[in-house]
Amino acid sequence: MSEGRQRLDKWLWFARFARTRSMAARLVADGHVRVNGTRAQAPAKAVHLGDVLTVAAPHGTMLVRILDLGERRGGAPEAQRLYETVGTPEPGS
User: Where is the RNA-binding S4 domain positioned along the sequence (predicted)?
Assistant: First the structure.
């Protein structure tokens, strides 16, 4: 990705945190995603390489660092290359 940024909802969908892009947008809109410790206000928020996300998805809460932005929604192994797990979220995050 040449501009070095991507919409948050699109990245969440590419990284398989949600089954559809609209579900990814709903995760953000419902307040279940933080970017660098701050609650994301809009699905269109730009994320960059190195940003740390806290995602409280239905299957669990994860703290991840963005390693790549991706260009399409691929299989699980491809999606897992987009991020690294950096630890467990703080209680109440």
Answer: 6-71
Domains (ranges, CATH) in the chain? 5-86 (3.10.290.10)
In 3D, which of 66, 62, 32 has the Cα closest to residue 47?
66
Residue 41 phi, psi dihedral angles, 5° rounding: -95, -25
Six-digit token pair at 71? 């260009």
Q: What gap in Å lies between CA 84 and CA 31, rounded to an integer? A: 22
Count Cα atoms within 13 angstroms, Cβ side, for 67.
12
Handedness of CA 7, 13, 28, 50 (dihedral sign): negative
